[in-house]
Amino acid sequence: RAFCPKGRCQGKVNPNIKKDVAKVVDSVDIEDITEKAAFCRCWRSKKFPYCDGSHGPMNKELGDNVGPIIVKHK
Ligand code: FES
């Protein structure tokens, strides 16, 4: 499957992001978000931690419904 490269999806949420570290932790300063930002929750974005829309084709292939969390200023 395209979304499970090299069989890495077996029981894992994260198939291929920063696999060289023990724990993936990202920090974003709220001041750097100008209007809004979409953060990936599917672990498939090539712009992680930001959403790049990869959840769409993944949902279609896997029959799932995950999407980003959007942070925005009021
Ligand atoms: Fe992962 Fe959009 S790419 S939630």
Automatic annotation (TrEMBL):
Portion of the full-length sequence here: 55 to 128 of 128
Required cofactor(s): [2Fe-2S] cluster
Domain of life: Eukaryota
Protein name per the record: Iron-binding zinc finger CDGSH type domain-containing protein
GO molecular function (one): 2 iron, 2 sulfur cluster binding
Swiss-Prot/TrEMBL GO biological process terms: regulation of autophagy
Signal peptide limits: none
Membrane topology, record value: Single-pass membrane protein
